[in-house]
Structures are given as structure tokens and as C-alpha cells.
Amino acid sequence: MSKFDLTNAGFGTRSIHAGQEPDKLHGALATPIYQTSTFCFETVEQGSAIFSGEIPGYAYSRGGNPTVNALEEKIAALECGEACIATSSGMGAVGGVVLGTLATGDHAICGKCVYGCTDVVFRQTLAKLGIEVTYVDTNDLKAVEAAIKENTKLIYFETLTNPNMELTDIAAISKIAHEHGAIVAVDNTFTPPPQVYPLKEGADLVLHSCTKYINGHGDVIAGAIVGRAELIGPIKKNVTSKICGTTPSPFNSYLILRGLQTMELRMARHCENGLAVAKYLESVPYVKKVYYPGLESHPQHEVAKRMMHGNYGGIMSFELKEEVNGMDGFTACKKVVNALKLASIAVSLGDPETLIQHPASMTHANMSPEARAEAGIKDDLIRLSVGLENVEDIIADFEQAFAVL
Ligand SMILES: Cc1ncc(COP(=O)(O)O)c(C=O)c1O
């Protein structure tokens, strides 16, 4: 650990120094990539003691690796949590949370709009395991409380829903859950610190697709779960490193450690660009609605002001009016998206590049049309992840694309 006490240090300082110390062997400043599957013991006795946990040390990289552990320490510090499990994908983190907190006969509550593959886990995988799930609008606190049963163990939702951009009041849900003995897990992929701190709001577990803002460079698939050590320890021991084996590679962990050092700067730019692009889109006469928590028109803008500390992020979704110059809104929208030159048509988000995609046929395509309708994911909705380019260029790209209509 850094010699500097990071407990009360700012986000930028923690993102650079947490989990990192000069390498003990040669003093390397950057965390070395321990690209090894196994570790050698001096003696049988030492190996046995490391395996039994009697003395600290590494044995096999699926269970622990210095580069991966440095990443876990850093992400835990950034989310203000005690412990972290890094996983090889965001879905690895989702799997770790549900398999680590639920068992046959339990009941879970899931936000009605979640990422498409997460929806499949809750609707299909958990049903096979005999775990009942109720889907609720987590903005409706009365509906959440009414859905709680004797055997409710978990309330799961996304801070900002993918792709509808609905914001949930984490503190209010956590209070209800804790009164009924359930735990709260929040997917914070869309709003990582320094935007939203779910653990400080009262959640028990926070998870991420680190593929997105945490790595921030579009070159890694990874995930993470953060929370109290008493919750994280068993998930790591029994689920992620054993049943699922979702430990990330040392190389990918190194890339994320590298990406995290500039997280504060990146997020500030994403937020600044995001707000400017959302305001621009709202001003375009062809646009019917922009869903972005930083806009006053967003239904939970007041909650966003409190929970997001003025940082509204770089993701938004929008739809065009029903009729645009003789075309239906969705046809017009496809024309605009196809005409973009700077933004790429691609799923994922939180990259330096501006990315745009159509949730109904891409990220949420593996949900049934009924599940999409229940989640409120409209067929003509477009999701945009505003990148780190100069904002005038992003807006100019949209201006030339709207000009094709
Ligand atoms: C909100 C959210 N959670 C989880 C995931 C899954 O992450 P990954 O693709 O890293 O497995 C995604 C992926 O897009 C996501 O958007």
C-alpha cells in the first residue's frame, strides 16, 4: 500500500495510488504483470501453509495473483468498499452475485429493466435453479415493498437502467430491503465513482462491467463485485474462483489498472461532453425525447442531482418523432445513425470513442419481445455513449447526419 494515508484522499489520488506500491523485487513503479498460472514453493511445508491460509502467499492464479489483487484493492478503494472480486467479464460479476447470494427456494426482486444478458440470467437461469424472481419498477418504492416475501434474499437493479436511463434511489431501496432482511446489489456500470457510490447510499454489493468506464479504453472484457469482506469472501471462495472460474487474466488486470489511473479525468470529460450532447439533441426539432439524468426533463432529475453529485455521465438514449419528413421516426433515426462519420455503430459504452447502437436489435436482442415490452424498451430507442472526442466535433457529426433527413 502507498505510504500516504489514502483513507480520506480524493478520488484522483486514490485511483492512482490505491492497490499500487513499488514492486518489492526491483522497485518497478508500475504494477508488474505476473503472467503465471502457478507459483513455486520453497518447501512442501511452505506450500501446505499457503494452501491452508496459515501464511499469506500465492499458489495458483485462479485463486489469487498479485496483479489481479492490485486491481481488486484499487477498485475496492474507488467504490469505498472493504473487498473486491475482479472477474473476467461483467456477466461473471452478475453470476457471482446471484449464485453467491441465492439458493433454491429463495426469492429475488429484480429491476424491471436491466441489461439483456442479465435479464436472461434472472428469467431463465434462476428459474432452472428453483429461485423465484419478481420484476418491479424500482422507482416505485411501494411496489418494491409489496413484492417482498418471507424468503426474499436479494434486491437487484441497475443505478441507471440500460437502456432506458431510469434512476433508482439506492438509499430508499436499501432501507426497505434491510428492514426485511434482504440484501441489495446494484449494477453501477453506467455511473461509476466519482458519479455514484452505491455502498455509501446503503447497498450491500456493487458490481460493474469493467469493460466499460472502469477500464475505459475499449480493449478489455472484465467485471468486479465490491462489498463487505464478509459477503465478498464466500462469493470469491465458493463461486467466482471455483464454480465459475471467472478470475481475469493478469494482463487484462494490468490494462485496467493502467486505465484507472486517469479515471477522474476521463469521467469529467465524459460528463461534460454528455451534458452538452444531451442538450444539443434535445434542441433538434426531429427529436421527440432524450433520456439523460442531467436534463431537467428527466423524471428523476432531482434524485440525480443528489446522487450523482452533478456528474451525469456520458450515456443517453433518444427517440425521434413518430413522423419525420414523410418517414416514420425509426426509419429516419436509422438514416441519421448510418450517416454518422465520427461515432461508430457498436455496442459497449464508456470508451474514448463515441458509440451508438439500437438496443432492441443489439444489446437487448436476446430478451423476448414481451420481456422488452414489460421493461419498457421501445423498438425505436437509440442508445448513445458519448466519448472523449472534442464535443464540437461530436455535435458537428450529428448536425451533418440530421441534415440527410
Ligand atoms: C449494465 C451492464 N451490466 C453488465 C454487463 C455485462 O458486462 P460484460 O459485457 O463485461 O460481460 C453489461 C454489458 O453491456 C451492462 O451494460
From TrEMBL:
Cofactor names: pyridoxal 5'-phosphate
Catalytic reaction equation(s): L-homocysteine + H2O = 2-oxobutanoate + hydrogen sulfide + NH4(+) + H(+); L-methionine + H2O = methanethiol + 2-oxobutanoate + NH4(+)
Enzyme's top EC category: lyase
Record-listed N6-(pyridoxal phosphate)lysine modification sites: K212
Swiss-Prot/TrEMBL GO biological process terms: methionine biosynthetic process; transsulfuration
GO terms assigned for molecular function: homocysteine desulfhydrase activity; methionine gamma-lyase activity; pyridoxal phosphate binding; transferase activity
Record-listed E.C. numbers: 4.4.1.2
GO CC, one annotated term: cytoplasm
Superkingdom as given in the UniProt entry: Bacteria
Keywords recorded for this protein, A-Z: Pyridoxal phosphate, Transferase
Keyword Transferase: yes
SUPFAM superfamilies membership: PLP-dependent transferases
Family label: Belongs to the trans-sulfuration enzymes family.
PANTHER family recorded: CYSTATHIONINE GAMMA-LYASE (PTHR11808:SF80), TRANS-SULFURATION ENZYME FAMILY MEMBER (PTHR11808)
This protein's name: homocysteine desulfhydrase
